[in-house]
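As described in the Methods, two query proteins were run sequentially through the folding procedure within a single session, without resetting any intermediate state between them. The first query and its resulting structure tokens are shown here.
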Amino acid sequence: MSTLYLEAAKVLNKIEKKNVGIRSVIYSEKQNKCNIRKLSALVHGVSGKRKELELILQKSHLLEDSNINQISNYWLLLVLAYEQLFGNLKIQGGGALARLVRKNKDKLYECFSKEYPDLINQVKHSKVYEQIPRYLRVNTTIESAESVLNSILDQVKQTNQFANDDIQNYIWIDKHIKNVIACKHEVAKLLCLDRIPSSNELIKTSKVVLQDKGSCFSAICAKITPGDFVLDACSAPGSKSLHIIDMLNKRGRLVALDKDSTRIKTLIKRISEVPYLAGPFVYKKKNFETIQIEDISDECLLGEIGCIFLDKESKLIRNNKLIMIDYLDNFKPPDLLIHVAKCDFLSLTPTTEDHLLPWYHYKNTISNLRVIVLDPSCSGSGLPQHGKVEGVNIEKRLKSLSEFQTKMLIHSLSSFQSVETVCYSTCSIFTEENEQVVLNSLEKCKNSGNLQFSLEIALENWENPNRSYQDSSFGEIYKKCIFVNPETHNCRGFFLAKFVKNSSR
């Protein structure tokens, strides 16, 4: 156990017991075993956050597990909790209480987020999230990750601001996702790799896409391969859809749905920037026409066609225009087809006749889906900009979100007969939106006699941080899912559960 923590606990105990000031105790002759400045900062910090710390420890049940009948344990637990949540965000040294706090740090953060969402946002932003690098997903359909990495390294060397033997500490290929490059903020800012629009040619030519590491797991865990038919059920603003398009490698189909018109236009704009795609084409007057994004109306996006994109090399494209619809049915479907449509996923009800529709109707694609990627609205508690929604009680909001997310997941698991894989994800750290949704969805499918899927290990060799649950069912779910912890994994918070149809196992 760090001497600093032990001394801080003694000081706090003496202040409480003798009702004296912090300064007089710290500067007494007996309190000289550690750095006075660090000790003073720690004691002031714990004193200032005592009310919050006590509530968080109570809600997380750590007060019950720490033998607080010993007064010294009580103050030491407050010191350790402060260090984990507000201080260095990492406890130094060993000891039973230190191990207890480390083991339950995710539970502490969850309680912290629920009780003090504004406060945790400030702490996260200033401590953890500032250390997260900028992640760049390489569009491997255009260029390899190694080639892009070399290009970035060359750009860095030309600035003469980093020693050659030190550059690898600022830029590296991610160990879990081989087409993702991480850049520390100094490099990303210097090379304009941290913004859109950007003057950097790698972004302008779509060779790289700004996408956080956690968000990349949806397509990776779904094991999307060329030729797949995929549904991105809540697709806007489009990072996951773009990743899916990349993994299809010019062969397969994607249906990208969203119910928000503004967000859909953002998605369409991003897809239109992929250099090898032609479109968007919209269905007008019994024909397909190219259209400017600002001219796309809800009328264009509603219905069973929406707007579509094709590979520019498709035989259906003539002079960057789609051939007349009268001839479309005489051609076999294109190798690559992207549908974008405005649709509430819960209202999407496939029928046995959908496969008879022409290939340019997105319900034709829906009838042959293999993969559903589902990332519904969530609290966003894993993101740095997360904060409390004014006027809304957090428990009430989480209950509402959890019920909605459960409906979405049940719909994915029960309404699409051809689907073999469903990946459910959130950018939340709350159990209510993650493990609870998984458990509720599986139980409701089972109770209705429609349990076709099982939870499967999302990603081999992935290690979640240690976490304890009062409900053992959550623990079993957690073992198979991906839980991205900003502190542990150095990227934004993210959760993913992978379901595989029993007949496909």
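Immediately afterward, the second query was submitted; its sequence and tokens are:
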Amino acid sequence: MNIITIGRGPNNRIIINNPHVSSNHAELQIDDYGNLTLNDISRHGTLVNGRKIHKTSVTVNRGDKILFADIIPLDWNQIPSIQSNNNNFKHNISIGTNADNKIQIYNEQVSRYHAIVKIDKKGQLFINDQSSNGTFVNGNRISKYVDFPVNRGDKVSFANVQELDWNRIPKSSLNPTYLILSLLLVLAAGTGIFYQKAIKELLFRNDVSRKYENSIGLIYNSYYLAYIDHGDTLYYIGEDFKFADLRKDPYSKNSLKPFEITGSGFYVSDDGKIITNKHVAAPWESDLAIDKEKIEQVINIVRASHGEYSVNSKVVGVVVKTGIFPNNSKLEKDDVFKNMLPCSLVKLADEKEVDLALIQLTSQKLPALSRPVTDIITRKEEITLDDDISIFGYPFGFNLALKNNEGKIKATFDHGKISKISDKYEIQYNAPSFHGASGSPVFNKDGKLIAVNYAGIEKSQGYNFGIIATHIKKLLED
């Protein structure tokens, strides 16, 4: 994917010095096959063959009459013929945060379409940087929009934060798609069983995403911590662990900024019940979301300020705002919470090891087109080691959910395999998981809910964990 940015600003690839043209007016996207898509992001719009578009995307053809701000024509001589260039390469592997890349990377510093790894007919490797924050080869930043020669094993870093995994770059000169199809046909001729199984596994991922894309949402929670002694709220603790003394000034809490956390959740009933993690719905009850040691330090300061200590003192959470943004809902700039559906906490899992919580829509009614997840395993024995799984959620919260989606909150859909099943509470898998994906549903190859994602080791993406879904039943019981 190649993106040509157009506008008045100095960082655009095509700069138009005209006051009617926006600083960032439009983007012309050229995919690996030479198909062209024009995306208008301007204030005054763009004319395409006499038809005005504004804040939307249209397919265009080379030679179409395109006018920016209705007066400045696009010079097609400035647009590279990507298709003819790519014909020289057997492989073009696009890399970036957008979901349609062949290698998708989850990092806020990486661009939507960051770079392309190219392999020519002789097997020579090249990398073409198309990003804002650069691509680095063996520590040196390479020039933009240039096919830079590299060797397999070179240290290639995107935005200097995410290294290229060479295992994901094909070695064989054979087209892997043809190789797979040939293998399937040979095996199908023998028994037909393997063929049917392989096709089923290739299709299940799309089936699960279509089935449950309206069953999930991004969970938002803001809250204070309150220090209570003998039933009286004496102090409020806010972000950065600053605190307000309510004895001296009852309104001093207004100067504090509440803690904020985002996660993922999914509907489990028609009356708007939602499953998420305990550390998302009630962070003060979990070591995963709050720095307990830091809180203890603040409490000691509070107690010293209070001048006395009582065995009846405690710290509790005070919710400011809890809600769910349905998948594909829009985040409005003038009111970011306009499309958030308010929720309230219903119940937390009793066991400390079970990081699950039940919240419910205040309206007790699902939004239009939404459906609950009801196909849930009832026995741990239904989980199979090395089974394919899919996880639906919002890694990096608002930042990645909004990126590339025209202001819409959209979930990512990732895949992996089960690598370990614990005795009682959890499973382990290698599907990618980052902060913000807490509370994401995990489905098996049959589309059954088998777990709820809750923890992982970000620097080692083979170690991510989910609470086994059989524990949901207890939360749903009255």
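The chain has a mean pLDDT of 82. We note this only descriptively and draw no conclusion about the first query from it.
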